[in-house]
Amino acid sequence: MNRKILRAGAVALAFAAMPLLSIANETSAKDVGKKFDEAGTAIKDYSVEQRDEAVKSAKAALDDLDAKINRLAADIDAQWDKLDASARKKAYESMDRLRRERNDAAEWLGALKHSSKEAWGDVKNGFSKSYDTLASSFAKAKEEF
Predict the structure, then answer these.
(1) 101: left (phi over 0), alpha (psi -120 to 50) or beta
(2) Predicted model pTM
């Protein structure tokens, strides 16, 4: 049952991650964290006049993270039969948290596209915080699995 739920989550993430970007096979959790910290911080530097660039940058960062999450889900799925009950539960919980946090970041991305000038600063900060949370959770999950 848990395997079916994990696969369903992986499929949902795959659909959310179109188009997927290529993934480096050997990336440490620290490298991942640093790269994603830079992406989240970069969004904060855009002015409302640079909205299109900010959205493009945010989408690319989110797409890249989606691809890495999908790869992690595939790796977990490939090892599922070798995991004990505790590790399976942890994997399921990690993927569920990533899915929820990814959805939150996607909502902020939508807000970036449509925010008013007055709300721009709050929306940028909201996306950055949401993205940073997601990236941190991914780095932690990658390190655990």
Answers:
(1) alpha
(2) 0.71
